[in-house]
Amino acid sequence: MSVRKASRPLGYLPQDRPPFLDLVAFGLQHVLTMFPATVFVALVTGFDVGVTLFASGLATIVAILGSGMRIPLYYGSSFSYIAAVSAVVGAEWGGVRVAQGGIVATALVSILAGLLIRWVGKDALDKVLPPIVTGSVAIVIGISLAKAALDMAAAHWGIALFTLTMTVLFSVYLRGKGFISMIPVLLGAICGYILAAILGKVDFSRIAVASWLRVPSFSTPAFKWPAILAIAPIAIATIPESTAHLYQISLYVDRLAEELGRKKPQIKYLIGLNLILDGLGDAINGFLGGCAGTNYGENNSLMAITRNYSCPVIIAAGVIAMLLGFVGKLAAVVETLPISVTGGLAIFLFGVIGLQGVALIQSEKVDLFDPKQLAIGAVILIIGVGGASFEGRTCPLYCRGWIRSSPMGCPPLPPRPSWVFCSISSF
User: Fold this and answer.
1) What range defines the domain where residue 340 resides?
2) By C-alpha distance, which of 11, 98, 86 is closest to 44?
3) CA angle 202, 206, 207 (to 5 degrees)
4) Partners of 402 in beta bridges
């Protein structure tokens, strides 16, 4: 092996496929990253958890294959829809099946938006969503999650800080050490889990009482105009978020490709296709009975930290999520992860989301000495971060975080697993 090859940075581009066992470990790491938020949305809106996990995995696999193995994004439940979906589920004329009809309608909105963007081109979109907008949106997404991360960590600060410290150390000092350098979040979670178990903070009884096999309660949608009008327009609000996520991951993928001496994929030009795939994901959720979804910023952070953008890895994560929908014991093992461990991971992952927005602004050479650019970025940051705190309110039940106000007030929640949390943010 030449000196040049030996010094090449380790990482996987979208179409690279790691060895099988590595693939499974990398996929599990993605599942641990998306699991708490995805399941929480199902719990708070009254949707079946098993169906939501299954639909999340299936939607992700369909999106990856639909992109031709080019767009490495994981699709989980979106917090943006909680208020509208909860209101529809709780209405006299509503219910879960009626809310499903609204979610199917969001699929049409996203698909039409994607077709429009493919027609007018990325340059036209950039005039509406220039880098200062998408970068600032990404910063807002990350920073507005700070309260949720700290609330989770507050369940046990010692465990949370230990988990955070170990994860950071693994991500920094294992870089370039082969397979182990690709799983810092998984290693950090394991370390935090062991400490929590030693301190008696892990409830293993959940595993004992869980069934080996379970059949998710799949259901078909029912279409009513009030639900469609309440839920479908929210898809428009998620377009800047999805665009920011794609631009972020494209930036990091291209940087890795450059370092590896390979052709830049430039997946940012696939934004129209990405929105169409967003719509297909919502269609899958709506027709099966899962929650409305979005591509996850925290999984983007995981990829940025590990430099692993492999689409086969994300397909593996989708398969694991689908299995979690049916294998009760397997889901229960993940559910025993203490909220404090999740909080320690979240401090790191959510912070990286915000910094990816900074990197996007830097890479596009946005002139922050230009009053116009300053005005746009400043308004988005203050309204986005400040508006999140203003709109949210403390949940009066038992969660520490925030939840969007809705016509129904704070939705009733079932008994809370240790990892559940509330957040106003769109994941």
Assistant:
1) 20-403
2) 86
3) 100
4) 394
Instruction: Using alpha carbons, list the distances in angstroms from residue 342 to 167, 170, 191, 225, 334.
Output: 12, 16, 12, 39, 11
User: What is the pTM assigned to this prediction?
Assistant: 0.79
Q: What angle do CA 289, 416, 317 make, to 5 degrees?
A: 50
**Structure token digits, residue 236:** 């428009």
Is 422 contained in some domain?
no
**Closest of 324, 39, 332, 36 to residue 207, by C-alpha:** 332
Do the bridges between strand 293-295 and strand 75-77 make them parallel or antiparallel, or are there none, so unpaired? Answer: antiparallel
Q: Are 313 and 18 in contact (CB under 8 A)?
A: yes
Residue 142 in any domain: the answer is yes
Element (H, E) at 402: strand 402-403
The predicted-structure confidence for 164-189, as pLDDT tens digits, reads as follows: 999 999 999 988 787 888 889 899 99
pLDDT digits (tens, 9 = 90+) for 313-332: 999 999 999 998 898 887 77
Distance of CA 131 to the CA centre of its chain: 21
Residue 131 contacts residue 123 (beta carbons within 8 Å): no
Residue 41 lies inside a defined structural domain of this protein? yes
Instruction: Decide if 8 is inside a domain.
Output: no
3-state secondary structure of 304: helix
Domain count, the chain: 1
